[in-house]
Write a structure and sequence with these properties.
This protein is of the alpha/beta class. It is built from 2 helices and 3 strands; from the N terminus they run βαβαβ. The longest helix has 10 residues, at 15-24.
Length: 59
């Protein structure tokens, strides 16, 4: 299965929606906090796609 990383960080929006869309497209998805990349517990090389979500909050 093709693996996708959805990058999370303080203040990011729409990561749940991004995950949902990628799963619907057939990806195996992991939500990864930016600190997990920094400390080496997750490696970008283990993924086929990096999604950096964003967007404006709905008010």
């Amino acid at each position: 299965m093709v693996k996708a990383m959805v990058l999370r960080a303080a203040g990011t929006n729409c990561y749940a929606e991004t995950r949902f869309a990628l799963e619907k497209a057939g990806f195996s998805v992991d939500d990864v906090h930016v600190n997990e990349l920094i400390n080496g517990s997750k490696k970008l090389v283990n993924y086929n796609l990096l999604a950096i979500p964003g967007g404006l909050p709905a008010n």
